[in-house]
Amino acid sequence: MTWASRIKRKSRGLTAIIFLGAVSVSHEAGAEIVDASVAAQQIELFDVILRYPQPPWVVGSLERSELLNRSKFYRDFSGNTFVLEQIPSGQEFDTWDSLFAVTAEELAVGRRFSMQDFIGLAERQNRLVCVDRGYAIQVLRATQNDSIVFMVCGSTEKGSTTIGYGPGVGEASLWRFLIYDDTYLKIYQRWRSSGFTIENRDDWPMTEVELREMVRRITDGVEVFRKVSGQ
Does a structural domain hold residue 79? Predict the structure, then answer.
């Protein structure tokens, strides 16, 4: 496999390595071209390997090196929690209108909470910043270890303005929740725009086509493997 980019960090048992893999096609200039809709990103998180899709703004047939160039990254690792965020390369982390992220948390041996509790924590955090009666949630898949959820908030009135939320800012988000032994994973996409009435679908921050494509990516493009001992 050709490595287009590597970001590596080792600390307290965690190695974060990102690489890009995709279906390649020929190109007369000799550059390797990949289809962004099926291109994979992969990262080692604690005792698992997570494979996940490109964010929604990375589209079309691109040179492999361009896949990561389309995004700006933020990463944080603290204790047993890891966060990796992507936004479009021309945006800023306090004013973005599209953000894609992967998070992982490794619980202590013998400690565990249910998928319902896992989803509930994220759902409460989203609901708390939203205006009353301006919030909705839809569960697209729900199993003991794997769920997909959509959330929408017409106005994040109670959110922090220092990171782009607050009155007049609405948000929709799509989430994949995975539990693999003692590792809890979230892959999610957030879209922001001017505030809207949640019943008016035309005012949401992404189109129906964009949402359906991201549902497909987050459904078909996510896999979790156990990390082989010694890697």
Answer: yes
Q: What is the pLDDT of residues 166-209, one digit of tens each?
A: 999 999 999 999 999 999 999 999 999 999 999 999 999 999 99
Q: Is residue 22 part of a domain?
A: no
pLDDT in tens, 143-152: 999 999 999 9
Asked if residue 7 is part of any domain, the answer here is no
The amino acid that residue 171 corresponds to is E
Domain count, the chain: 1
Residues 6+ away with beta carbon under 8 Å from 120: none
DSSP H helices, the chain, are: 66-69, 115-128, 208-220
